Amino acid sequence: MIAHLSLSFLTFMLPIVAAAVWKIRSILRAAAKAEQDALPFVPTPQPEAALLRGLPSARRIFLLQHLKVAGSLYAVMAWTIAFIFTLPLFTVASANSDKWFNHSAYLWYSFIVGASHSTQFFFTMVLFSGIAVIMPMRFGPEARFYRTRPIPVSFVFWTKVLSVLTAMIAGAATGIALAFAILVALHGPIWHNLPATIPRLLGPDDSDVAQLYAGLLVTSAHSIFLSILTTITLFFSLVVFLGSAPVLRLRSNAALPLLMIPAAFVPLAIVIISFSSNGGTSYFFRTLYIYLSLGPPPPLIYALVPIALAAICITGARLFTNHQDI
Amino acid sequence: MTTYAIQTNALVKTYSLGNKKTHAVDGLNLNVSEGSIYGLLGRNSAGKTTTIRMAMGLAHPTSGDIKVFGLNPARDPERIDVLRQVGYVPEDKMLAALSARKLLELNRNFYPETWSDDLARKVIKRLELPLDTAFMKLSLGNKTKSALACAIAQRSRLLILDEPTTGLDPIALDELLRLLVEDCTAEGRTIFLSTHQLAEIEQIADHIGIMDRGRILLEGPLDDIRSSFRRLTVTGAALPTSHPGILSTRRQAHATQYILQSAPEAFAQDLIANGATIVESNPMSLNEIFLELCRTSESTAADREEEFA
Predict the structure, then answer these.
(1) DSSP code for B20
(2) Quick one: B49 and B68 in the same domain?
(3) What is the percent of chain A where pLDDT is above 70?
(4) Are residues B40 and B129 in the same domain?
(5) SS3 (DSSP) at A140
(6) Who among A142, A148, A322 is closest to B83 (CB)?
(7) Nearest-Cα residue of chain A relative to residue B22
(8) Which of B85, B106, B91 shows the shortest CA–CA distance to B166?
């Protein structure tokens, strides 16, 4: 089991580490070459981007820089989500698998549960991405640099927020689609092969499986995947809002991360509570379209609630940036 | 008619930390004429950097207003027009964590209309700036040089330099002063610099402002200020203790020393007419003027606090 987990971890890390090593080596090579050549100042031509040609040079450069970062974030997000979702497909022989009466049912259950396993990951990504968006707008040399160049504050804000948010959502959607494609390629459309009822051969010791299967039958995969996307949007907006709030009036930058991390535990707590929610709390999470466990899905219309809240949070953060001292 | 590059009117900036309020800038009135080299002098925490931050739109005034070329630097779209015309070197010199070459390449994209590669090369050569050293390996002096090269090569109408001599060796400092005078002011640009280095300011500035505790103590053309300040050592009976021109008075063993901040000749004539003898009459250096003003401001503030208590 440990050997299997290690192998999975290595499989997961291999492309990320390889990409990081390649990037670091190319940076070091370029730096060494530059120091050797020691040319006078001859600016390198900027990359042409046909779609951005209409923008003034300052905004084009700023946007291109952020699109590059967003591209990397998209790749990491897609790869990791796909990995987490498909991991159970390669580790079918777990302790519980022999209790399941139907192989397709077990595979489908494992695949869906992958969604809840991805929660921790996407929450961490959202937290750090939110901090990475807000920090350089409020504090430090980068904030000072871009705030004293002739680009509108609104352009800086929307470029940073939308590029990261779009990369995360598109990355998660791609990861989910990729995982689905792998599932279908390996096992076919297993969700069509599920028995509508629980077979009688399940004994009293198998009540947990029966309960899980009953939950699985009423679970909507589409809604879980949609919920991942809306929850990413909601939490990211919340982190951006909290990070921009004027309550953080520090004369020193050093304390900011210490303040951001406790604030970020609020959404983490929300996710954890959502797993064991019932009654009133269940209604609360359904309203926010936080649907990350087995059971009947919330009405689709509720998906608009986190989107509306996210829009309010981001608009609020944008208004705060107008009055921020850097 | 004089046009002003920077003008402030009753400018106030207050920072709150819990119940404690600090007036970093307290009713500041500043007039920086276009085309001048204006040196803003002051002790630590006098409010120089806060004023500069407000001029760059990095901080918002609590009250009063600040205009750069008649525009509000804190609000878009006027802010954009201001920033197109201003080159800025911040106090900590950390613009972005890049090598000097990368920083220059990045910065030139923001000023396509005014940027000069030739001027950039000239500044790099004169200041001996290493272009490809990684940011982490750059010394403070070299960080200062990269920030200066970026700001100067922008060829902006206004250069705002916050402590631009930090970490520079005497040769680089001399080159910088030459560059500022030869290349920047020759094109009619305005230079607004804050510093503690009075000797350097005295070499290049034509206007100065002296700040203390968020207020301007003195402002005007440097030559006028030099000629209006004088130290008089006087003997005689019934010497005056108050006069609009007196900045401070010190009783010595056999004489009285006056520091005068305006019309010293007229005051000396009055003393002679009243039977006093002028033992010594000396002009004052900028350094002496600065120290005298700061000491007087400090004792006035202490008296005010005592009265308030």
Answers:
(1) E
(2) yes
(3) 74
(4) yes
(5) helix
(6) A148
(7) A251
(8) B91
* Residue ending a domain, choose from B223, B247, B265: B223
Q: Which of B223, B249, B264 is the last residue of a domain?
A: B223
Q: Which of A46, A141, A151 sits opposite B96 (nearest CB)?
A: A141
Residues B102 and B19 grouped into a single domain = yes
**What are the tokens at B224?**
């006028």
Give residue-wise pLDDT tens across range B161-215: 998 888 888 888 888 888 888 877 777 889 999 988 888 888 889 999 999 888 9
Measured distance CA(B163)–CA(B183) in Å, rounded: 19
Interatomic CA distance for residues B121 and A41, integer angstroms: 6
**Residue carrying the six token digits 């535990």:** A265
Tokens of A175: 């990861």
Give the C-alpha separation, B289 to B198, whole Å: 10
Residue B302 contacts A, CB cutoff 8 Å = no
Give per-residue pLDDT as tens, A183-234: 899 888 888 878 777 665 556 666 777 778 888 888 888 899 899 999 999 9
Q: What is the ipTM of this complex?
A: 0.85
In chain B, positions 97-126, which contact chain A (CB-CB < 8 Å)? 97, 99, 101, 104-112, 117, 120-121, 124-125
- What is each CA distance from B216 to A8, A279, B51, B290, B303, in whole angstroms? 67, 65, 11, 12, 19
Question: Based on the structure, what is the number of domains in chain A?
Answer: 1
pLDDT at position B73 is 92
CA B249 to chain centre: 27
**Domain range spanning residue B173?**
4-223
